[in-house]
Amino acid sequence: MRRKAPASRKKKPSGSLGRVRIGIIRSEYNSDLTRQLATNCRRELLAAGLATAQIDEFTVPGCFEIPWMAQRLARRRRYDVLIALGVVIRGKTHHFELVTRECARGIMQVSLAHDLPVVFEVIAAYNRRDAQRRAGPDRFNRGLEAAQTALSLLRNVS
To answer: DSSP per residue over 69-131, as a string?
Structure first.
């Protein structure tokens, strides 16, 4: 792992997760849905044994800005995994495709350039109902899936 986490008075997680740091980048656009993603993501990370102090959350206005924030955080070299959370819902223009494509491309560039896993859970939905299903409170929530992916990466790389 890159660095030791600061000492915490809270219970330390067991195993290799005791020293990791995770950064969550959440888009504010469609915030009712992205907050649900982040809540489920954080809940799953805490259930796995991470302390609150090991998880930092950052917000950006929209999904297009997620790669920029990921780049800034990757340069800090504080995080072992970044998680990108956002929701883009198709409208009547080509904007949907542009935002989702460039967000994915930018995140992949950051991940490869910094040798840092960036979990991509930016929901690209054709309608609000489909987005709500993926951000809902059940086991199909993509924020939950993002946390599980991050934890799997941490366990397999350490």
So the answer is: HHHHHHHHT--SEEEEEEEEE--SSTHHHHHHHHHHHHHHHHHHHHT--EEEEEEEESSHHHH
